[in-house]
Amino acid sequence: EPSVPRASRQRFVQEFSQCLFDFVIQLLPTTEELAVKEDVRKLLERLIRTIEPDSRLLSFGSTANGFSLRNSDMDLCCLIDSDERLAASDLVTMLGDLLERETKFHVKPLPHARIPIVKLSLDPSPGLPLGIACDIGFENRLALENTRLLYCYAMIDPTRVRTMVLFLKVWCKRRKINSPYKGTLSSYGYVLLVIYFLVHVKNPPVLPNLQQMPPLRPISPEDTHIGSYNTWFFDDIDLLRTRWASANTESVGQLLIDFFKYFARDFLYNTGVASIRAGLIKKESKGWQNDLDPVRYKDSRERNRFCIEDPFEADFNVARCVTKDGLYLLRGEFMRASRILSTRPERAIVAIAQLCE
Ligand code: ATP
Ligand code: MG
């Protein structure tokens, strides 16, 4: 009798959603942790101003986008509001020396990296049982904007969007598929996949496309561009929260089940690019196809196995670090998750434990 399985399935999905909320809530940073991080930011800002008086130190990444787990690292960006500023590499070296002298941080300046940064870490202490890890970069205005974009998406439907993203972040760390240096995907990449899924795959959509909504008033190009990149998006969250009501009422549990199924079976890895701005587009249209002459394009072949378009830097593949082996692992994990959720263990809590084993 089909009605019996359907009823039990509905019960499972409902219980699964509740368990996801409960699971994620205990992984949020404590107010104490947030306060310590804000103190660290202020301290670092004060020190940097002894070198560059007109500078500001701003948070980006998970500490600022609403998708932070307990003990996540701090991403900081230094903006300098003056025309005569030092080169980033010189700043990195000077700041490295200063922090070494004046603070208890372990300091590692990387002045010659593609994006020069200072890496800092603080050993665990009673107030900070896991220490702090922090990167300081310079003038990375695009990262500040994409952080703001993710934050706006998080705020439109905090319960569903944040629960999904935070669960996936835990899941991909536990399953060891969250290391761009080892050929898998960054947290930023996973967040973009969730937003892409909620804006473009789900029908009716759970989220609006903030980059394609009409602006409330005319805007001039110089207000919308950073360099050649268009960074405009609809950011009036108060208005959105009152005006945008999604016709999609599926539970977090159902959305997550469908997310895994979609990336296990349906996403066109060979030809498709996931774009939160434009939906599913073709690799060809971006020159990202990976079947080019294997000798000449050895590098690009490896780079474009999995394609996720950056929301602003449209010529940048956020998943370019994903290798052939990395993609195989990733897809295997999507399939595994999908299988666990379709065989449906007796209890939802057991499913969550298995997913994150
Ligand atoms: P976590 O809690 O795991 O640190 P996170 O949200 O801070 O997650 P990261 O992957 O550390 O995510 O990225 C931090 C920020 O750096 C992103 O919000 C984004 O602005 C920028 N960023 C990271 N990776 C990329 C990338 N591949 N391309 C462009 N920007 C990136
Ligand atoms: Mg981070």
Task: Please give a quick description of this structure.
This protein has 357 residues and is of the alpha+beta class.
How are the secondary structure elements laid out?
Elements: H1 3-25, H2 31-49, E1 55-60, H3 62-65, E2 74-80, H4 88-102, E3 106-110, E4 117-122, E5 132-138, H5 141-156, H6 158-174, H7 187-201, H8 221-224, E6 225-226, E7 229-230, H9 237-243, H10 252-266, E8 272-275, E9 279-282, H11 283-286, H12 298-303, E10 308-309, H13 324-343, H14 348-355
The chain binds adenosine-5'-triphosphate and magnesium ion.
Task: Provide tags for this entry.
globular, 14 helices, 2 domains, 357 residues, Poly(a)-polymerase, middle domain, five-stranded mixed β-sheet, Beta Polymerase, domain 2, binds magnesium ion, single chain, 10 strands, alpha+beta, binds adenosine-5'-triphosphate
